[in-house]
Amino acid sequence: MKVSLIGVGLMGYAMAERLIASGHQLTVFNRSTSKAEPLKELGATIAVSAKDAIQEASVVILMVSDARAIEQLLFTDGQVNLSGQTIIQMGTIAPSESIEIQKKLFKQDCHYFECPVLGSRNEAREGRLILLVGSSKEKFERWLDFLKVFGPSPRWIGDVGKAAALKLALNQLIAAHALSFSLSLGIIEKNEVDVDTFMTILRESALYAPMYDKKLSNWMKQSYENPNFPTKHLLKDVDLILDEVNNKGLSNEILQAMRNVIEQSVNEGLGDKDYSSVFQIINRLK
Predict the structure, then answer these.
(1) Which of 81, 126, 160, 209 is most buried by its number of CB atoms within 10 A?
(2) What is the pLDDT averaged over residues 75-101?
(3) 2-159 adopts what CATH topology?
């Protein structure tokens, strides 16, 4: 299939590799062309504009930073003929933003659905992502086989907006787990309790989450290079979650406190590091 992927950041690049390895004819566009250039050696075509990428494709995947970038690519940067095209939005945006994009594309006779993903670069390269689909049931069934390129069991969540909401709920847990575990590990270290003992007991309990072991080396070594999910992106998502919480009349005190810590991490120069770097702020480390 002729596929265009717009946005080849950390996740987008890995998804591009997966598409090429799966035999699809891939065109990519990224505002920073240098990030896309290595994909040319793997067989991808590098488009000079989003318009060119869209016109070349049977289906277009969006993996860009936020809804503002989507609006600019589709509706601002020159007239793009979207009639008859299918757009799959796979980044993390607010439910209301996804619904608004769908409405605008519907007016242009363009098919749209959302499919945010849970997982990191390795899962993307290996086709092990968790895919959350917001669409009509008919559209989900139409694109199910294609989506299995990225993950074995795409899940239909409901209409557009539902999958976006579920993704925000899951990303709230990413922030909560990272911050809470950082504090618990700080208590352990400050009191000179053996970390292995702590982890053994934690793994045996209902409190355990696999991400604790996944990020344990980062925390122990205070090393946050080669991020799968940079701190600045977590801050962007927490802002989306905070807006959603406020719009739905939910309590925001805990989330606001988490946001303050994450923002401080970014302000301390950790924005491009792995999100586990919040450990530095919680434990007042340089």
Answers:
(1) 160
(2) 91
(3) Rossmann fold (3.40.50)
Distance CA 32, CA 133 (A): 28
d(CA 249, CA 251): 7
d(CA 64, CA 86): 16
Cα–Cα distance measured from residue 134 to residue 162, given in angstroms and rounded to the nearest whole number: 6
CB 160 within 8 A of CB 113: yes
Count of other CB atoms within 10 angstroms of residue 175: 21
C-alpha dihedral over 233, 277, 178, 126, to 10 degrees? 60
Count CB neighbours of 277 within 10 A. 29
Query: Which pTM does this prediction carry?
Result: 0.95
- pLDDT of 253-286, one tens digit each? 999 999 999 999 999 999 999 999 999 999 998 6
| Domain residue extents for the chain | 2-159, 164-282
Cα separations (Å) of 156 from 67, 134, 161, 171?
A: 22, 6, 12, 18
CATH topology of domain 164-282: N-(1-d-carboxylethyl)-l-norvaline Dehydrogenase; domain 2 (1.10.1040)
Cα maximum dimension of the chain:
64
Hey, which residues does 73 pair with through a beta bridge? none
Q: pLDDT class for 171, splitting at 50, 70, 90?
A: very high
Residue with tokens 């086989």: 145
Q: How far is CA 74 from the centre of its chain?
A: 20
